[in-house]
Amino acid sequence: MDSARCRAWKGAGRKHRAPRFRAHARRLTTASKTDTETDTGTETSPGRGRRSALTTDPCYLGPVKILWASPLPPTRSGVADYAVELLPELGRRARVRVVAPPGTVPAGGGATVAGCPLVPASTTVADDEIQLLHLGNNPYHEWLLDRLGQPRTVVVLHDAVLHHLLVEATLARGQPERFDTLLREAHPEAAPLARARALGVTGRRDPFLFPARRGFLSNAVMVIVHSRWAARQVAKDLPGTPVVRVGLAVADPGRVDRSAVRRRLGIAPDAVLLAHLGFLTPDKGLVEVLGALAAVRAAGVPARLLIVGEGGHRDAITAAAARIGLAEAAGFTGWIPPEEFAPLPSAADLGIALRDPSAGETSSAAIRFFACGTPVAVTAVRQFLEWPEAAAPRVTPGPSACADLVRLIGEVADGPRWLARRAAARAAYEAEHLPSVAADQLVAALETVAVAKTS
Protein backbone atom coordinates (compact mmCIF):
# COMPACT_ATOMS: atom_id res chain seq x y z
CA MET A 1 0.00 0.00 0.00
CA ASP A 2 1.48 3.39 -0.95
CA SER A 3 1.31 6.70 0.91
CA ALA A 4 0.44 10.15 -0.37
CA ARG A 5 2.92 11.62 2.07
CA CYS A 6 5.71 9.06 2.21
CA ARG A 7 9.26 9.08 0.98
CA ALA A 8 10.35 6.55 -1.62
CA TRP A 9 11.46 3.76 0.69
CA LYS A 10 14.30 2.37 -1.36
CA GLY A 11 17.47 3.32 0.40
CA ALA A 12 15.53 5.17 3.10
CA GLY A 13 15.35 4.13 6.69
CA ARG A 14 18.62 2.20 6.82
CA LYS A 15 19.99 4.44 9.55
CA HIS A 16 16.89 3.56 11.59
CA ARG A 17 16.67 -0.12 10.67
CA ALA A 18 14.61 -2.20 13.05
CA PRO A 19 16.24 -4.88 15.20
CA ARG A 20 17.32 -8.02 13.39
CA PHE A 21 14.63 -10.70 13.51
CA ARG A 22 15.91 -13.42 15.74
CA ALA A 23 17.10 -16.80 14.57
CA HIS A 24 15.43 -18.37 17.60
CA ALA A 25 12.05 -16.81 16.77
CA ARG A 26 9.71 -19.09 14.91
CA ARG A 27 11.05 -19.32 11.40
CA LEU A 28 9.30 -17.38 8.71
CA THR A 29 8.74 -20.52 6.72
CA THR A 30 7.55 -23.12 9.21
CA ALA A 31 4.80 -25.01 7.43
CA SER A 32 1.84 -26.43 9.33
CA LYS A 33 0.12 -28.27 6.47
CA THR A 34 0.52 -31.99 5.98
CA ASP A 35 1.05 -33.81 2.72
CA THR A 36 -2.39 -35.39 3.04
CA GLU A 37 -4.27 -32.14 3.61
CA THR A 38 -6.73 -31.49 0.81
CA ASP A 39 -8.39 -28.27 1.98
CA THR A 40 -7.68 -25.33 -0.31
CA GLY A 41 -7.36 -21.69 0.60
CA THR A 42 -10.19 -19.55 -0.67
CA GLU A 43 -11.25 -15.97 -0.50
CA THR A 44 -14.14 -15.62 1.91
CA SER A 45 -16.52 -12.78 2.51
CA PRO A 46 -16.34 -11.09 5.93
CA GLY A 47 -18.73 -12.82 8.26
CA ARG A 48 -18.73 -16.03 6.20
CA GLY A 49 -15.10 -17.11 6.71
CA ARG A 50 -14.31 -20.63 7.85
CA ARG A 51 -13.31 -21.16 11.45
CA SER A 52 -9.58 -21.61 11.87
CA ALA A 53 -8.01 -24.88 12.94
CA LEU A 54 -7.76 -23.43 16.47
CA THR A 55 -11.49 -23.78 17.13
CA THR A 56 -11.39 -26.45 19.85
CA ASP A 57 -12.58 -26.25 23.46
CA PRO A 58 -11.96 -24.31 25.61
CA CYS A 59 -11.98 -21.78 22.75
CA TYR A 60 -14.89 -19.62 21.76
CA LEU A 61 -15.95 -17.04 19.22
CA GLY A 62 -16.92 -13.92 21.11
CA PRO A 63 -16.29 -10.19 21.38
CA VAL A 64 -13.09 -9.44 19.51
CA LYS A 65 -9.97 -8.34 21.36
CA ILE A 66 -7.14 -7.15 19.10
CA LEU A 67 -3.44 -6.53 19.56
CA TRP A 68 -2.66 -4.25 16.59
CA ALA A 69 0.94 -4.17 15.26
CA SER A 70 1.90 -1.85 12.39
CA PRO A 71 4.00 1.20 11.56
CA LEU A 72 2.57 4.32 13.19
CA PRO A 73 3.06 8.08 12.80
CA PRO A 74 5.38 9.91 12.73
CA THR A 75 6.59 7.31 10.22
CA ARG A 76 5.44 8.65 6.85
CA SER A 77 4.12 5.47 5.34
CA GLY A 78 0.84 4.41 3.84
CA VAL A 79 0.21 1.78 6.52
CA ALA A 80 0.89 4.31 9.30
CA ASP A 81 -1.73 6.60 7.74
CA TYR A 82 -4.11 3.64 7.42
CA ALA A 83 -3.68 2.81 11.10
CA VAL A 84 -4.73 6.19 12.45
CA GLU A 85 -7.62 6.42 9.97
CA LEU A 86 -9.08 2.98 10.72
CA LEU A 87 -8.35 2.59 14.44
CA PRO A 88 -11.03 5.04 15.67
CA GLU A 89 -13.76 3.00 13.97
CA LEU A 90 -12.21 -0.33 14.90
CA GLY A 91 -11.95 0.77 18.54
CA ARG A 92 -15.72 1.31 18.60
CA ARG A 93 -16.30 -2.32 17.62
CA ALA A 94 -13.58 -4.21 19.49
CA ARG A 95 -11.14 -3.84 22.34
CA VAL A 96 -7.90 -2.78 20.69
CA ARG A 97 -4.41 -2.41 22.08
CA VAL A 98 -1.74 -0.97 19.78
CA VAL A 99 1.90 -2.06 19.88
CA ALA A 100 4.35 0.83 19.93
CA PRO A 101 7.09 0.39 17.29
CA PRO A 102 10.65 0.00 18.64
CA GLY A 103 12.09 3.29 19.83
CA THR A 104 8.66 4.59 20.79
CA VAL A 105 8.35 4.79 24.56
CA PRO A 106 4.69 5.00 25.66
CA ALA A 107 4.16 7.51 28.44
CA GLY A 108 3.40 5.89 31.79
CA GLY A 109 0.11 4.12 31.47
CA GLY A 110 -1.90 6.68 29.53
CA ALA A 111 -0.51 6.85 25.99
CA THR A 112 -3.01 6.26 23.20
CA VAL A 113 -3.10 6.29 19.43
CA ALA A 114 -6.39 7.10 17.70
CA GLY A 115 -8.14 6.49 21.02
CA CYS A 116 -6.62 3.03 21.59
CA PRO A 117 -4.10 2.30 24.37
CA LEU A 118 -0.47 2.10 23.29
CA VAL A 119 1.55 -0.77 24.76
CA PRO A 120 5.32 -1.44 24.66
CA ALA A 121 6.97 -3.17 21.71
CA SER A 122 7.73 -6.17 23.92
CA THR A 123 4.00 -6.88 24.48
CA THR A 124 2.88 -10.33 23.40
CA VAL A 125 -0.60 -11.41 22.40
CA ALA A 126 -2.81 -12.37 25.35
CA ASP A 127 -4.68 -15.67 25.46
CA ASP A 128 -7.97 -13.95 24.64
CA GLU A 129 -6.57 -11.68 21.91
CA ILE A 130 -5.89 -11.87 18.19
CA GLN A 131 -2.70 -10.27 16.96
CA LEU A 132 -3.49 -8.21 13.86
CA LEU A 133 -0.12 -7.77 12.19
CA HIS A 134 0.32 -5.56 9.12
CA LEU A 135 2.92 -6.31 6.46
CA GLY A 136 4.01 -4.12 3.58
CA ASN A 137 6.89 -4.27 1.13
CA ASN A 138 9.31 -1.86 2.79
CA PRO A 139 11.73 -1.61 5.74
CA TYR A 140 9.19 0.09 8.02
CA HIS A 141 7.70 -3.39 8.55
CA GLU A 142 10.94 -5.20 9.34
CA TRP A 143 10.51 -4.94 13.12
CA LEU A 144 7.25 -6.88 12.83
CA LEU A 145 8.92 -10.04 11.52
CA ASP A 146 9.89 -11.18 15.02
CA ARG A 147 6.19 -11.19 15.91
CA LEU A 148 5.09 -13.60 13.17
CA GLY A 149 5.61 -16.64 15.41
CA GLN A 150 3.10 -15.50 18.02
CA PRO A 151 -0.16 -17.48 18.29
CA ARG A 152 -3.45 -16.34 16.76
CA THR A 153 -1.71 -14.00 14.33
CA VAL A 154 -3.83 -12.63 11.51
CA VAL A 155 -1.72 -10.91 8.85
CA VAL A 156 -3.08 -7.93 6.94
CA LEU A 157 -1.16 -8.04 3.67
CA HIS A 158 -0.88 -4.57 2.17
CA ASP A 159 1.38 -5.59 -0.73
CA ALA A 160 1.15 -8.89 -2.56
CA VAL A 161 4.90 -8.70 -3.27
CA LEU A 162 7.18 -8.95 -0.21
CA HIS A 163 10.46 -9.62 -2.01
CA HIS A 164 11.89 -6.19 -1.13
CA LEU A 165 11.10 -6.79 2.56
CA LEU A 166 12.95 -10.10 2.34
CA VAL A 167 15.95 -8.36 0.80
CA GLU A 168 16.00 -5.78 3.62
CA ALA A 169 15.74 -8.47 6.28
CA THR A 170 18.52 -10.65 4.84
CA LEU A 171 20.81 -9.27 2.12
CA ALA A 172 20.86 -5.76 3.59
CA ARG A 173 22.09 -7.36 6.82
CA GLY A 174 24.81 -9.40 5.14
CA GLN A 175 22.88 -12.69 5.24
CA PRO A 176 22.94 -14.00 1.64
CA GLU A 177 22.57 -17.63 2.78
CA ARG A 178 19.38 -16.80 4.65
CA PHE A 179 18.04 -14.96 1.61
CA ASP A 180 18.83 -17.98 -0.55
CA THR A 181 17.10 -20.37 1.88
CA LEU A 182 13.95 -18.31 2.39
CA LEU A 183 13.54 -17.39 -1.27
CA ARG A 184 13.89 -21.00 -2.39
CA GLU A 185 11.43 -22.18 0.24
CA ALA A 186 8.91 -19.72 -1.18
CA HIS A 187 9.92 -20.37 -4.81
CA PRO A 188 11.87 -23.57 -5.43
CA GLU A 189 12.34 -22.51 -9.04
CA ALA A 190 14.17 -19.34 -7.93
CA ALA A 191 17.49 -20.99 -7.07
CA PRO A 192 19.28 -19.43 -10.10
CA LEU A 193 17.98 -15.99 -9.14
CA ALA A 194 19.26 -16.40 -5.59
CA ARG A 195 22.69 -17.36 -6.90
CA ALA A 196 22.69 -14.35 -9.23
CA ARG A 197 21.78 -12.02 -6.37
CA ALA A 198 24.73 -13.36 -4.38
CA LEU A 199 26.93 -12.20 -7.27
CA GLY A 200 25.28 -8.77 -7.37
CA VAL A 201 23.23 -9.46 -10.52
CA THR A 202 19.54 -8.58 -10.45
CA GLY A 203 16.78 -7.51 -12.80
CA ARG A 204 14.23 -4.75 -12.20
CA ARG A 205 11.29 -7.15 -12.42
CA ASP A 206 12.80 -10.04 -10.46
CA PRO A 207 11.03 -9.14 -7.19
CA PHE A 208 7.67 -9.06 -8.95
CA LEU A 209 8.22 -12.48 -10.54
CA PHE A 210 9.19 -13.99 -7.17
CA PRO A 211 7.03 -12.20 -4.57
CA ALA A 212 8.25 -14.29 -1.59
CA ARG A 213 4.93 -14.20 0.27
CA ARG A 214 4.76 -17.76 1.53
CA GLY A 215 7.60 -17.51 4.02
CA PHE A 216 6.07 -14.55 5.79
CA LEU A 217 2.53 -15.93 5.92
CA SER A 218 2.84 -19.63 6.66
CA ASN A 219 2.10 -19.26 10.40
CA ALA A 220 -0.91 -16.97 10.00
CA VAL A 221 -4.30 -18.31 11.06
CA MET A 222 -5.89 -15.96 8.54
CA VAL A 223 -4.70 -13.50 5.90
CA ILE A 224 -6.56 -10.25 5.17
CA VAL A 225 -6.08 -8.66 1.74
CA HIS A 226 -7.61 -5.68 -0.03
CA SER A 227 -8.37 -7.06 -3.50
CA ARG A 228 -9.83 -10.17 -5.10
CA TRP A 229 -6.68 -10.60 -7.16
CA ALA A 230 -4.49 -10.64 -4.04
CA ALA A 231 -6.89 -13.09 -2.39
CA ARG A 232 -6.46 -15.52 -5.27
CA GLN A 233 -2.67 -15.28 -5.17
CA VAL A 234 -2.45 -15.85 -1.42
CA ALA A 235 -4.93 -18.74 -1.55
CA LYS A 236 -2.67 -20.49 -4.06
CA ASP A 237 0.31 -20.04 -1.75
CA LEU A 238 -1.45 -21.18 1.43
CA PRO A 239 -3.93 -23.99 0.83
CA GLY A 240 -6.19 -24.37 3.85
CA THR A 241 -5.60 -20.90 5.28
CA PRO A 242 -8.64 -18.58 5.29
CA VAL A 243 -8.09 -15.54 3.07
CA VAL A 244 -10.53 -12.65 3.48
CA ARG A 245 -10.86 -9.49 1.42
CA VAL A 246 -11.53 -6.29 3.38
CA GLY A 247 -11.73 -2.86 1.76
CA LEU A 248 -8.76 -0.54 2.23
CA ALA A 249 -9.91 2.24 4.55
CA VAL A 250 -9.18 5.90 3.89
CA ALA A 251 -10.51 8.77 5.99
CA ASP A 252 -13.53 10.58 4.61
CA PRO A 253 -12.67 14.23 3.81
CA GLY A 254 -16.37 15.15 4.02
CA ARG A 255 -17.81 17.93 1.94
CA VAL A 256 -14.98 19.68 0.11
CA ASP A 257 -14.96 23.16 -1.43
CA ARG A 258 -13.05 22.26 -4.57
CA SER A 259 -12.83 25.82 -5.85
CA ALA A 260 -11.33 27.00 -2.57
CA VAL A 261 -8.72 24.23 -2.65
CA ARG A 262 -7.74 25.15 -6.19
CA ARG A 263 -7.44 28.83 -5.27
CA ARG A 264 -5.22 27.94 -2.33
CA LEU A 265 -2.96 25.98 -4.67
CA GLY A 266 -2.89 28.76 -7.26
CA ILE A 267 -4.69 26.70 -9.94
CA ALA A 268 -6.53 28.79 -12.54
CA PRO A 269 -10.26 27.98 -12.96
CA ASP A 270 -9.77 26.90 -16.58
CA ALA A 271 -6.67 24.77 -15.97
CA VAL A 272 -6.90 21.01 -16.37
CA LEU A 273 -5.06 19.69 -13.35
CA LEU A 274 -3.45 16.26 -13.19
CA ALA A 275 -2.30 15.22 -9.73
CA HIS A 276 -0.09 12.45 -8.44
CA LEU A 277 0.08 11.63 -4.73
CA GLY A 278 3.54 10.50 -3.68
CA PHE A 279 6.65 10.68 -5.83
CA LEU A 280 6.41 10.02 -9.52
CA THR A 281 8.98 7.41 -10.58
CA PRO A 282 9.45 5.40 -13.79
CA ASP A 283 7.38 2.57 -12.26
CA LYS A 284 4.59 5.08 -11.65
CA GLY A 285 4.33 6.40 -15.20
CA LEU A 286 6.78 9.32 -15.20
CA VAL A 287 7.52 9.07 -18.93
CA GLU A 288 3.89 8.60 -19.96
CA VAL A 289 2.53 11.38 -17.75
CA LEU A 290 5.08 13.95 -18.86
CA GLY A 291 4.64 12.90 -22.49
CA ALA A 292 0.85 13.28 -22.30
CA LEU A 293 1.18 16.65 -20.57
CA ALA A 294 3.49 17.93 -23.30
CA ALA A 295 1.16 16.66 -26.03
CA VAL A 296 -2.03 18.27 -24.70
CA ARG A 297 -0.30 21.55 -23.94
CA ALA A 298 1.02 21.63 -27.52
CA ALA A 299 -2.61 21.24 -28.62
CA GLY A 300 -3.63 24.28 -26.57
CA VAL A 301 -5.02 22.55 -23.46
CA PRO A 302 -4.00 24.50 -20.32
CA ALA A 303 -2.97 21.37 -18.44
CA ARG A 304 -0.75 21.21 -15.37
CA LEU A 305 0.74 18.49 -13.21
CA LEU A 306 0.87 18.69 -9.41
CA ILE A 307 2.99 16.17 -7.49
CA VAL A 308 2.14 15.88 -3.80
CA GLY A 309 4.68 14.38 -1.43
CA GLU A 310 8.37 14.19 -0.72
CA GLY A 311 11.26 11.96 -1.65
CA GLY A 312 14.51 11.67 -3.53
CA HIS A 313 13.29 12.00 -7.11
CA ARG A 314 12.30 15.66 -7.21
CA ASP A 315 15.43 16.89 -8.96
CA ALA A 316 15.22 14.17 -11.62
CA ILE A 317 11.56 14.91 -12.33
CA THR A 318 12.19 18.66 -12.47
CA ALA A 319 15.06 18.16 -14.91
CA ALA A 320 13.01 15.81 -17.11
CA ALA A 321 10.11 18.27 -17.21
CA ALA A 322 12.41 21.16 -18.10
CA ARG A 323 13.99 19.24 -20.98
CA ILE A 324 10.63 18.95 -22.73
CA GLY A 325 9.45 22.48 -21.99
CA LEU A 326 7.29 21.74 -18.94
CA ALA A 327 9.28 23.61 -16.30
CA GLU A 328 6.32 25.91 -15.56
CA ALA A 329 3.68 23.22 -15.92
CA ALA A 330 4.86 20.70 -13.31
CA GLY A 331 4.89 21.64 -9.63
CA PHE A 332 5.50 20.07 -6.22
CA THR A 333 3.90 20.65 -2.85
CA GLY A 334 6.37 18.80 -0.64
CA TRP A 335 4.98 17.05 2.43
CA ILE A 336 1.50 18.17 3.45
CA PRO A 337 0.30 17.89 7.09
CA PRO A 338 -2.61 15.47 7.52
CA GLU A 339 -5.11 18.16 8.45
CA GLU A 340 -4.41 20.00 5.18
CA PHE A 341 -4.02 16.96 3.00
CA ALA A 342 -7.46 15.30 3.05
CA PRO A 343 -9.25 17.74 0.69
CA LEU A 344 -6.27 18.32 -1.61
CA PRO A 345 -7.07 15.55 -4.16
CA SER A 346 -10.35 17.35 -4.92
CA ALA A 347 -8.40 20.04 -6.77
CA ALA A 348 -7.48 17.63 -9.55
CA ASP A 349 -9.53 16.97 -12.66
CA LEU A 350 -7.76 13.64 -13.07
CA GLY A 351 -5.75 11.70 -10.53
CA ILE A 352 -2.79 9.59 -11.64
CA ALA A 353 -2.12 6.19 -10.02
CA LEU A 354 -0.14 4.14 -12.52
CA ARG A 355 1.93 1.10 -11.50
CA ASP A 356 4.05 -0.93 -13.91
CA PRO A 357 5.20 -3.23 -12.48
CA SER A 358 2.84 -3.38 -9.52
CA ALA A 359 3.55 -4.94 -6.13
CA GLY A 360 -0.09 -5.96 -5.93
CA GLU A 361 -0.98 -3.04 -3.69
CA THR A 362 -4.42 -1.48 -3.54
CA SER A 363 -3.43 2.13 -4.08
CA SER A 364 -4.44 4.32 -1.15
CA ALA A 365 -3.64 7.29 -3.37
CA ALA A 366 -6.35 6.21 -5.82
CA ILE A 367 -8.85 5.80 -2.98
CA ARG A 368 -8.04 9.29 -1.67
CA PHE A 369 -8.94 10.65 -5.09
CA PHE A 370 -12.18 8.63 -5.02
CA ALA A 371 -13.03 10.03 -1.58
CA CYS A 372 -12.84 13.55 -3.02
CA GLY A 373 -14.91 12.62 -6.07
CA THR A 374 -11.94 12.73 -8.44
CA PRO A 375 -11.59 10.09 -11.18
CA VAL A 376 -8.17 8.47 -11.27
CA ALA A 377 -6.30 6.92 -14.19
CA VAL A 378 -5.04 3.43 -13.27
CA THR A 379 -2.94 0.84 -15.06
CA ALA A 380 -5.21 -1.74 -16.70
CA VAL A 381 -3.84 -4.77 -14.85
CA ARG A 382 -4.79 -7.10 -12.02
CA GLN A 383 -6.27 -5.48 -8.90
CA PHE A 384 -6.89 -2.11 -10.55
CA LEU A 385 -9.46 -3.68 -12.88
CA GLU A 386 -11.72 -4.36 -9.88
CA TRP A 387 -12.77 -0.72 -9.62
CA PRO A 388 -15.55 0.58 -11.91
CA GLU A 389 -14.16 2.00 -15.14
CA ALA A 390 -16.23 5.15 -14.67
CA ALA A 391 -14.29 5.91 -11.49
CA ALA A 392 -10.95 4.45 -12.55
CA PRO A 393 -10.46 4.86 -16.33
CA ARG A 394 -7.86 2.43 -17.63
CA VAL A 395 -4.45 3.15 -19.09
CA THR A 396 -3.01 0.23 -21.05
CA PRO A 397 0.61 -0.42 -20.06
CA GLY A 398 3.05 -0.14 -22.92
CA PRO A 399 3.37 2.10 -25.99
CA SER A 400 -0.25 3.26 -25.94
CA ALA A 401 -0.21 4.54 -22.35
CA CYS A 402 0.65 8.12 -23.33
CA ALA A 403 -2.16 8.18 -25.93
CA ASP A 404 -4.63 6.85 -23.34
CA LEU A 405 -3.75 9.68 -20.98
CA VAL A 406 -4.10 12.26 -23.76
CA ARG A 407 -7.57 10.89 -24.49
CA LEU A 408 -8.59 11.09 -20.84
CA ILE A 409 -7.32 14.64 -20.46
CA GLY A 410 -9.39 15.56 -23.51
CA GLU A 411 -12.49 14.08 -21.87
CA VAL A 412 -12.27 16.55 -18.99
CA ALA A 413 -13.72 19.20 -21.30
CA ASP A 414 -16.87 17.07 -21.69
CA GLY A 415 -18.65 18.49 -18.66
CA PRO A 416 -21.59 16.08 -18.21
CA ARG A 417 -19.47 12.99 -18.86
CA TRP A 418 -16.78 14.07 -16.45
CA LEU A 419 -19.35 14.95 -13.77
CA ALA A 420 -20.66 11.39 -14.10
CA ARG A 421 -17.13 10.11 -13.55
CA ARG A 422 -16.85 12.26 -10.43
CA ALA A 423 -20.03 10.78 -9.01
CA ALA A 424 -18.80 7.27 -9.80
CA ALA A 425 -15.51 7.95 -7.99
CA ARG A 426 -17.26 8.99 -4.79
CA ALA A 427 -19.61 6.00 -5.05
CA ALA A 428 -16.62 3.63 -5.38
CA TYR A 429 -15.19 5.10 -2.18
CA GLU A 430 -18.40 4.81 -0.21
CA ALA A 431 -18.99 1.21 -1.31
CA GLU A 432 -15.94 -0.32 0.39
CA HIS A 433 -13.42 2.22 1.60
CA LEU A 434 -15.15 4.18 4.36
CA PRO A 435 -13.41 3.38 7.67
CA SER A 436 -16.76 2.36 9.17
CA VAL A 437 -17.38 -0.13 6.35
CA ALA A 438 -13.86 -1.56 6.53
CA ALA A 439 -14.05 -1.86 10.34
CA ASP A 440 -17.32 -3.81 10.09
CA GLN A 441 -15.76 -6.16 7.54
CA LEU A 442 -12.61 -6.63 9.58
CA VAL A 443 -14.43 -7.42 12.83
CA ALA A 444 -16.73 -9.85 11.03
CA ALA A 445 -13.66 -11.69 9.72
CA LEU A 446 -11.89 -11.76 13.09
CA GLU A 447 -14.99 -13.09 14.82
CA THR A 448 -14.34 -16.41 13.04
CA VAL A 449 -10.93 -16.82 14.73
CA ALA A 450 -11.09 -18.81 17.96
CA VAL A 451 -9.40 -17.54 21.12
CA ALA A 452 -9.05 -18.87 24.67
CA LYS A 453 -12.13 -18.56 26.85
CA THR A 454 -11.76 -16.02 29.65
CA SER A 455 -13.13 -16.62 33.12
Summarize the structure.
The protein is of the alpha/beta class and 455 residues long.
Give your account of this protein's structure:
By secondary structure, the protein is α/β, with parallel strands linked by helices. The protein has 2 domains: 202 residues, Rossmann fold, CATH 3.40.50; 176 residues, Glycogen Phosphorylase B (Rossmann fold, 3-Layer(aba) Sandwich), CATH 3.40.50.2000. The chain contains 15 helices and 17 strands. A 9-stranded mixed sheet has the order 1-10-9-8-7-3-4-6-5. Helix 7 links the parallel strand 9 and strand 10. Helix 12 crosses helix 14. The longest helix has 18 residues. The radius of gyration is 22 Å and the shape is globular. It starts with 42 loop residues before the first strand and ends with a strand. The relative contact order is 0.16. The N terminus is likely disordered.
Annotation keywords:
alpha/beta; Rossmann fold; 15 helices; 31% helix; 15% strand; globular
The CATH topology name of the largest domain reads: Rossmann fold
Assigned CATH architecture of the largest domain: 3-Layer(aba) Sandwich
The residue fraction in helices comes out at 25-40%
Query: How many distinct folded domains?
Result: 2
Number of strands: 17
Main sheet?
9 strands, mixed
Q: Which ranges are low-confidence, i.e. pLDDT below 50, for 5 or more consecutive residues?
A: 1-42, 47-60
Structural class: alpha/beta
Radius of gyration: 22 Å
**Strand-residue proportion:** 5-15%
- What is the 3D shape? globular
Say what oligomer this is. single chain
By DSSP (H or I, 4+ residues per run), the number of helices equals 15
Alpha-carbon distance between the two ends: 39 Å
